[in-house]
């Protein structure tokens, strides 16, 4: 038996008047996900424990079968694990965005959390040269992909309250910046970085081309390196992750899952959907029992506040990932169980995450009977009465086993 999880990040949403009271999932054409919902188990799962921020880090850790309320330490160290950083126990890793901050009258506004989805090539030049000019035995940067990077603070504090830049879009950053003002070492590093970036030739060229300049660093999601029991020991299955972004790859690294990198997997709407789907199938044809495939595009479109792009991202996920995997698994894998799920809501109206139970649907190739007429969406999932309080409990059902206890 093979097990496949297909996750569209941030697909959950609220009913919208522009869609006559439907959500994007209800309005989008998703025959693949609807097939799974109609021929399998449909319900809701609470991926974010009470009191925790509804981030992709927490929600995906839950859906991979762990308990973030006990094991989560921050987003930064998870992404650092993906990049192969060796951190000392006292080190703190921040996720660090290249962002665009714009001055409007006397206010500084978070104009773009991604610096216009700056290319990885441009970003690597900026990070490399920032390190050459500013790094020390206390603070240094490590390049990631596009706008997503890591800032390591040797012996830094982990308890400070930072703010994700996508939560500040269009807003004055004054209150959020006070966090850095209270940490002089970090504040001075960030101010010097802003001065350096403002004059950099890459940003001068971006402004000439009408693109948002990467004129500031924004560190957030900090923490020390967590420890997770290996997935294979916990669940008795050899697993792999197919993902575009360092966050999901980092969770895979920490869980001891094989990381499958796919050319053209960008983490945006131009990603190589079919290549990722086929990479999952090829892994399952070999020695892998479980694949977790994560697509970022719906979340990115939601943060941009674009309803059209969100619907397109959902439909592309369905057409090029869900339907491809369904077709190829049926033809090449034999018996399998497939779950489609999202990690959290990213409502268009908020442009950031919200903590609500999210829909999931599970299809078992051994039992393909029609169970219902509903589709895969928030409303239909809520009407089935099937609900799981944690991602770990849902994964236990999906994998048809109980997690192995560490002492076993």
TrEMBL record:
Keyword Isomerase recorded: yes
EC number(s) per entry: 5.4.2.-
Listed GO biological process terms: glycolytic process
Pathway(s) annotated for this protein in UniProt: Carbohydrate degradation
UniProtKB keywords: Glycolysis, Isomerase, Kinase, Transferase
Matches recorded under CDD domains: iPGM_like
Protein name: Proposed homoserine kinase
Native organism: Thermodesulfatator indicus (strain DSM 15286 / JCM 11887 / CIR29812)
Origin organism lineage: Bacteria, Pseudomonadati, Thermodesulfobacteriota, Thermodesulfobacteria, Thermodesulfobacteriales
